[in-house]
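Lay summary. Proteins are chains of building blocks that fold into shapes, and those shapes determine what they do. In this project we predict the shape from the chain. Here is one chain we studied, written as its sequence of building blocks.
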Amino acid sequence: MWSICKKELGQFFSSLTGYIAIVVFLLVNGLVLFVFRNNILDNGYASLEDFFAFAPWILLFLVPAITMRSLADEYRGGTFEILRTKPVTTGQIVWGKFLGAFIVALIALLPTIIYYFTISNLAATSGIDAGAAIGSYLGLLFLTAAFTAIGICISSFTNNAVVAFIISLIACVVLYYGFRAVSQLPALESGADYYVEMLGIDFHYSSISRGVIDTRDIIYFLSVTAFFLLITRQNLLKR
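And here is the predicted shape, written in a compact code that computers can read:
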């Protein structure tokens, strides 16, 4: 499993594409947070709420870009058959691919901790709420894990990396925001809107981002991640 994970990391950083994806992620977040209109410097108070509200939408593009080649390129290049001859189980292949992509996404998120210390030092009073920031970063980790599992799953169904990226992007958007959009329909105003919204990732991410660590939110993210990894495993067994 770890050999597959190392292989994924090596392939991603063997070309400029991996570095460009991470730099673009950090650049866009930095511009939104410090440069563009209504940035944190103009607001006049120390808070990372705008970053944690905007970062998931950037991850919607970043994570599919990371995972789109995970299994699609193995099929297209004919190396999946070689991989199956190695002394590894199907589950180890899935977990190796998942951990490799997940670590790359974490590498992209890690430098954003600088935002926290920068804004805390610029604050004239008490600085940023540490509890809320920790909860929000924990939410981003769970969100990244769920998006990674979805991307790996979609990549296991096609040998075209571009198709995998597009479908993964659509799937992540639907699961992240689609249920909230559906819950706002007038026909669901009688009380069903709350339960429909609970099915979406955004509902549980927003809950954790408030700094309240609820086991229901953690179980939800772990269940979504495990569900898509299980589908990936079953799909690979069929091949």
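What the prediction tells us: The chain has one domain: 2-238.
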